[in-house]
Design brief:
alpha+beta, globular, 5 strands
């Protein structure tokens, strides 16, 4: 597993960038341990588990990001976690940029990465 990049962008969004396996592990942990069994996490996991299919679709449609399905009720309750996903290949490795909802803070994501004992670096964006 490669080092995960944790970034707080100037637009106020927090995002992580890393290999597909690590990002899948983070989303699964959020779902199981923190009880975030929301449609956006489930759809994001579906996208990551079918990486090549969605990667090819993104290239064909000239898209940079995929936005997972979000339930309106989750939006109103503030439970949405994933805003959008970017799939790319870096040195032949399936890589992902996962942009979190604006309500998800840098400290919360940093805490999860530490709990999972994943190697990460904080980058100013």
């Amino acid at each position: 597993m490669s080092k995960i990049k944790l970034v707080r962008s100037f637009t106020g969004y927090t995002y992580i960038e890393g290999d597909r396996v690590s990002i899948t592990k983070i989303l699964t942990y959020l779902k199981e341990v923190y009880g975030r069994n929301t449609s956006d996490i489930n759809d994001a996991l579906r996208i990551l588990n079918n990486f090549n299919l969605f990667y090819d679709m993104m290239k064909r449609k000239f898209k940079d990001f995929i936005s997972p399905t979000k339930d309106e009720g989750d939006l109103l309750k503030g439970l949405v976690v994933v805003d959008k996903i970017k799939l790319f290949k870096k040195d032949g490795v399936e890589s992902v940029q996962l942009v979190f909802d604006k309500r998800i803070g840098l400290d919360f994501i940093s805490k999860i990465l530490k709990e999972l004992q994943l190697d990460f670096e904080l980058v100013e964006g």
